[in-house]
């Protein structure tokens, strides 16, 4: 059986205030054409269909068009909710939509109820595990501890228990939305750290033939059988070197597996350039970036006069301007930026406590309070109030 594995559409998202709706529509057309031309048997969408819990109307209309096109092809689609989606909203009408071959899996309680397909070699059970926010689903799944590893392990235990009741030789596919250890992140994934931990070990997916993952925006293989499709479009300049694609996966008898990358359309290439402004304006090696979306980092010791319009004359699609002035190694501002680079919200908060106390950091009880507060904020963001104002979706906002 041939699957097309995709994820992280983020419909409704912009890129540094550039509207990406036409590019997202082009991707949907490309996906539908790939399903038709490559004789795909089922489509797997591993979460983050929308960019936010309350998507704009244009994004909802595009999603509706995508479902109609897939249903018209008569190809089953299995789709889970991600940490950006409102599971309740995405799952509305799931029972009715299922009659058209679109299987929405947004309820954690149903993670062990598979969509069962069949080919010449027998049954294939497809299990959809929506994004599992530990604070919200621990009790539902009967997890033994808090955190992502515990709730995902509890969900996979249910999957394996159901699979054990299936006829011998039944193959299995799991869709999940999580950060698996060994994956390479980018700047555009929303932080899902809980209790200081954001990742889960790959061993959690032991016992299944293929794990179709979503959340990380770079296409990558954790193992031969555990893969991220990545997002179809770049949503931050940290993805400038990504090759945007989908996985075309053939699952044969006995779980034999082959995977091929299918490239996605690129609306405009991305480029990150760095240096003093005079060099950026004159370097002939930068000619190739003049038609790209550009992020320019200026290293001039003093901020140049009107840098944005000057650079935009050469790079008309300049979207982001960053200042990182060259400083002496002993400069306190330089060392402060280095201390913050790569640190989590929790580490920064603990460092702040130590700073205001003259070097004495939080004790274990205080660390627990800080961790619980950060976890509560993330949990509240995962399912916002019905009347909450829509969140900013500019490309520079991390999501």
From TrEMBL:
Keywords of the record, alphabetical order, are:
DNA recombination, DNA replication, Endonuclease, Exonuclease, Hydrolase, Nuclease
Q: Which family does it belong to?
A: Belongs to the SbcD family.
Q: Where is the signal peptide?
A: none
> What protein is this chain from?
Nuclease SbcCD subunit D
Checking NCBIfam families in the record gives:
sbcd
User: What is the protein's known function?
Assistant: SbcCD cleaves DNA hairpin structures. These structures can inhibit DNA replication and are intermediates in certain DNA recombination reactions. The complex acts as a 3'->5' double strand exonuclease that can open hairpins. It also has a 5' single-strand endonuclease activity.
Provide the taxonomic classification. Bacteria, Bacillati, Actinomycetota, Actinomycetes, Kitasatosporales
Q: Name the CDD domains on file.
A: MPP_Mre11_N
The record's annotation in Gene3D superfamilies points to:
3.60.21.10
Biological processes, Gene Ontology terms: DNA recombination; DNA replication
Looking at the record, the residues that make up the Nuclease SbcCD subunit D C-terminal domain are 267-355
Provide the species name.
Streptomyces bingchenggensis (strain BCW-1)
Which gene name belongs to this protein? Answer: sbcD
Biased composition, class Low complexity, residue ranges: 379-399
Q: Which GO terms describe its molecular function?
A: 3'-5' exonuclease activity; endonuclease activity
Location of the region described as Disordered in the Swiss-Prot/TrEMBL record: 377-399
> Whom does it interact with, and what assembly results?
Heterodimer of SbcC and SbcD.
Q: Where is the Calcineurin-like phosphoesterase domain?
A: 1-217
